[in-house]
Specification:
By secondary structure, this protein is an all-alpha fold. The chain is 69% helix and 3% strand. The chain has a 3-stranded antiparallel β-sheet with strand order 2-1-3.
């Protein structure tokens, strides 16, 4: 190993050690604050603050900062101005600080070898930690409540995100026109597509920050479902919108409206969205069938590894195919929690949930720390006061134009109305985070793109620090319930598994799910030989479950008491009591000792 390679290896190890130390300090600080019942900061806010602090410390340690920044501009100007950022290079022991970019290397700007530089690729961070964060958010959604509120959640996530993108883009575009009038920008600097791109980036509310806040405060469960479900799904829409707007900019003739390019970008939007959803579901089908028709449940370690690796593969496959990895892993998480979980052993269910919970927790700390670090160390920040002011104003205007009109329309058809207090808090709780940052940092090749990155970082810091701090007083001011106990069953197994009775829920989706999807992918539901026509028997017989008893042998401790009801054991107890005189004792036994809500009916049946 050469001297330079050894220095690079040592510096990379030091950078990782600093990141781990930063995570430890964040965890201990937040834990100590929670001991004092201090709710004004959570893990994401603390991590971003410490990342900002480390960045400022590094800048202070560089005594010749200005001089070496000039040297860096001279040496790396080609990459810095014309390509996308990839490596953030920071020297802790010397006076060098550089941001290297990806792209074709110019002959006039050859790579510079520096032995004392820590190199880090943010794409590695996003590929490593973003998939578990998104998967965990989708996997831990309460399935029953999510499906009950599916129409409202999908409306806010899809239609609401598009509305937010358009309103925010229009507002910011108005401020850029004002910048041109005041001479703060040239007429060709900011186009409408740039402003719409910024609107798409900032329309992605952050599920990590939202979940941390809602879990810490334990807000009303209906509000929890609406906010968290929207934040999980609207990431997918914002990402695909960003790709579609970028594709339109690349296909359009100049920056004038081009109908063919617009139609192509709409087709691209729908294609990427549907393709990513299908790819995520394909990996769920593979996982579900593999766990259904094999005896992997006898070895929970192997079973857990298979589920984790296949779920992660949905993200990597989508990225390699030109689709959206986050959209794929999002739908993979939703469908894994809907189907595959029924085939898993209790130990594997617990392991998978805890493993992704740890990845989610560490991921949010590292990503938000990195955001704080980039905010203080990125050498090409562009601060446009009017653009930033317009962005701050537009996030509230666009959020209000999204939540209030859609809530009014949804309340026309909902039996349980969305209260005004919920609507006010949903407007307030539009936190931005990892997804917005990952979209903004992909391209900083122009002043406009660097302005978008700088403004995005400032907005993320504002929503996490200021809005996150004000969330608890706002909830109390709006008289929204806090401190509510969460549902007992976090995994929320299906109705037929939990109660042993057929699911009679009405609706086309429920009938398809109960009669076809669940029997194919799990041991639940009626046999396919009864659901499908006789001529489909060749397909129905192999997929019909003949091992239902395997699923019901050992109910998980986390499931509700009614799902752990042992009917045969109870019949034996009731039979030993005998006679009509024991009927009251039978009901008391079932209701009191076993804690079953359906005790009287089951006792009479026995």
């Amino acid at each position: 190993m050469s001297h330079t390679d050894k220095h690079n290896q040592d510096s990379t190890t030091l950078a990782v050690l600093v990141a781990v130390g930063l995570a430890l300090v964040t965890i201990l600080s937040v834990w100590k604050l929670k001991q004092f019942k201090y709710r004004l900061i959570n893990e994401t806010g603390g991590a971003m603050f410490y990342g900002l602090l480390v960045g400022l410390t590094l800048r202070c340690l560089s005594f010749d900062w200005g001089e070496h920044m000039d040297d860096m501009e001279t040496v790396c100007s080609c990459g810095a101005l014309n390509n996308t950022p990839r490596f953030l290079t920071v020297n802790i022991t010397s006076h060098f600080h550089c941001f290297r970019h990806v792209g074709r290397v110019s002959q006039r700007c050859p790579p510079v070898s520096t032995p004392h530089v820590e190199t880090f690729d943010p794409k590695v961070l996003f590929n490593l930690f973003l998939p578990p964060i998104i998967f965990h958010g989708a996997y831990t959604l309460n399935q029953r409540r999510f499906i009950e509120s599916l129409g409202s959640v999908v409306t806010f996530a899809f239609l609401g995100t598009i509305i937010s993108c358009l309103i925010m883009g229009a507002c910011v575009y108005g401020f850029t026109r004002l910048m041109v009038l005041l001479g703060q920008a040239a007429d060709g600097d900011f186009f409408l597509t740039d402003c719409l791109l910024f609107g798409a980036i900032m329309s992605a509310t952050d599920p990590v920050a939202v979940l941390g806040l809602l879990s810490e405060l334990r807000v009303d469960l209906d509000l929890h479902t609406l906010l968290f479900g929207e934040s999980v799904l609207n990431d997918a829409v914002a990402i695909v919108l960003t790709h579609a707007i970028t594709a339109y900019s690349q296909m359009g003739a100049g920056h004038a409206f081009d109908p063919p390019a617009f139609l192509l970008s709409v087709g691209y939007f729908l294609g990427v969205l549907v393709g990513s959803f299908l790819l995520g579901f394909i990996y769920t089908v593979i996982t579900a069938l593999l766990t259904k028709f094999t005896r992997l449940r006898e070895n929970p370690l192997l079973e857990t590894s298979i589920v984790v690796l296949l779920s992660w593969s949905s993200f990597l496959s989508a990225e390699a195919s030109g689709l959206s990895g986050i959209v794929a892993v999002l739908f993979c998480g939703l469908s894994q929690a809907r189907y595959t979980i029924h085939n898993l052993s209790c130990e594997s269910r617990t392991r998978i949930k805890q493993l992704f919970e740890v990845f989610n927790f560490l991921g949010e700390i590292f990503i938000f720390s990195y955001m704080g670090y980039v905010l203080s160390t990125f050498p090409h920040h562009v601060f446009k006061a009017l653009f930033i002011s317009g962005a701050f104003l537009s996030i509230f205007i666009s959020r209000a134009c999204n939540i209030y009109p859609l809530s009014f329309l949804l309340n026309l058809g909902r039996t349980a109305k969305i209260p005004c207090a919920f609507q006010h808090f949903m407007v307030f709780a539009g936190f931005r985070g990892a997804v917005a940052f990952s979209l903004a940092v992909k391209d900083t090749s122009t002043d406009v793109k660097r302005t978008i990155l700088t403004t995005t970082l400032l907005l993320v810091g504002f929503t996490v620090w200021v809005l996150g701090t004000a969330a608890d007083p706002t909830l109390r001011r709006l008289n929204i319930r806090v401190g509510v106990d969460a549902d007992e069953n976090q995994e929320d197994l299906s109705f037929e598994v939990a109660t042993g009775r057929p699911d009679t829920t009405q609706g086309l989706w429920h009938r398809l799910d109960y009669k076809y999807l669940k029997p194919v992918l799990t041991h639940c539901g009626p046999p396919l030989t009864d659901s499908l026509p006789q001529w489909c028997g060749v397909f129905a017989r192999p997929f019909s479950s003949t091992h239902v008893q395997e699923v019901e042998e050992q109910p998980c401790e986390a499931e509700p008491d009614d799902s752990t009801f042992d009917l045969e054991k109870t019949k034996t107890l009731l039979g030993s009591m005998g006679g009509d005189s024991g009927s009251a004792q039978q009901e008391d036994l079932l209701e009191g000792d076993l804690g079953l809500g359906t005790a009287p009916a089951l006792a009479r049946e026995a």
